[in-house]
Amino acid sequence: EPEVTQTPSHQVTQMGQEVILRCVPISNHLYFYWYRQILGQKVEFLVSFYNNEISEKSEIFDDQFSVERPDGSNFTLKIRSTKLEDSAMYFCASYLGGTSFNSPLHFGNGTRLTVT
Amino acid sequence: DAKTTQPPSMDCAEGRAANLPCNHSTISGNEYVYWYRQIHSQGPQYIIHGLKNNETNEMASLIITEDRKSSTLILPHATLRDTAVYYCIVRVRGDYGQNFVFGPGTRLSVLP
Predict the structure, then answer these.
(1) CA distance to A54, A97, B11, B31, per residue, from A75 (Å)
(2) Chain segment A11-45, per-residue pLDDT in tens
(3) B63: Cα within 13 Å, side-chain hemisphere
(4) For residue B70, what pLDDT is reported?
(5) Is A49:A78 a contact under the CB 8 Å cutoff?
(6) Do the beta carbons of residue A92 and residue A4 sit within 8 Å?
(7) Are A55 and B41 a contacting pair at CB < 8 A?
(8) Would you call A45 and B42 a contact, using CB atoms and an 8 Å cutoff?
């Protein structure tokens, strides 16, 4: 069964450094998402992406964050200057969309980002 | 905020059915109910979804009350590997994202 894949599984970085988290969504899906989960807290929405542009973002997704679909398969989340509070699990997700508007959202297994 | 309420935790004996309730009293007529689970810190795993009819797949059954104000996820023969946090989510009409809100879920512990 096709799945969303994320790399790396764990990323350690120093405060102030840039990080790029990578995702390969399911190949025929049209909508892409990033969510995050701080340890012990709820899964939170960050941003959605459709037709090569951001369709929606939460207040968490400030100017330090950006997303990109550099080619036909990858979807990336960049944090320009990491802060300690960016430490979290980051989940990529994708959704078929179109006429299958009630099809489920599929999540990857996440990247654990640790900012020191 | 999530449109659903779930008990914070439940226990179930291995091999028995696990029945996880969810209240969604403000659900609208065209909003679906989705169930996901999260094992440790893995990504949320899709289980099942439905609108008003009961649904069954290889993982679970979903029973939605006639008034659609509540539902129950049934794992017919729970195993230790079913220990996880289970999320019941009502998707507010539209795209996912802000319309797909995770609450705290129910932490299910399957006991040997």
Answers:
(1) 12, 17, 39, 28
(2) 999 999 999 999 999 999 999 999 999 999 999 99
(3) 10
(4) 96
(5) no
(6) yes
(7) no
(8) no
